[in-house]
Design goal:
The protein contains 1 helix and 10 strands. It has 136 residues and is mainly beta. Strand 2 and strand 3 form a beta hairpin. The chain is 7% helix and 51% strand. The chain folds into 2 domains: 101 residues, Nucleic acid-binding proteins (OB fold (Dihydrolipoamide Acetyltransferase, E2P), Beta Barrel), CATH 2.40.50.140; 32 residues, no CATH class.
């Protein structure tokens, strides 16, 4: 079985392109995934994992993902090799995304961020109301 599940943050804006073969949308981005343990007196270490998404999932990436966003990716590990113009082989290991879920604890509504993770409702006067302010 080849299955990977990663939780991390995008290190930069996703790169979107069309494949040369069949004009399918392709999204590439890197996910910074924190390591579980931290050695005493050291900073937390992270691994930087290359992610690729195709077709409809690439469209989702283009529309909704941006630098710094925390997401959970499930997919499969893929390795490939290519030869550059000098005849040197390059080996690439990446995750082919099959599912992407938002994992940030912040919600963004009309440029207002709720860091308390409480429901936000917009009233008819375009004022942001917290859950405690609702009449019901």
């Amino acid at each position: 079985m080849n299955k990977s599940i990663l939780l991390g943050r995008l290190t930069k804006e996703p790169e979107i392109r069309l494949s040369q073969k069949n004009n399918t949308k392709v999204a590439n981005f890197t996910l910074a995934v924190n390591r579980k343990y931290v050695a005493q007196g050291e900073e937390r270490q992270a691994d930087f994992i290359n992610i690729v998404a195709y077709s409809k999932l690439a469209e989702f990436v283009e529309k909704y993902l941006n630098k710094g966003l925390q997401v959970c990716i499930s997919g499969r590990i893929q390795t490939r090799v290519y030869e550059d113009n000098n005849g040197q082989k390059h080996y690439i290991t990446e995750i082919v995304a099959e599912e992407i879920n938002f994992a940030d604890s912040q919600r963004k509504v009309d440029n207002t961020i709720d860091t308390n993770n409480t429901p936000i409702v917009e009233d008819t006067n375009n004022e942001i109301m917290q859950d405690d302010d609702l009449p019901f």
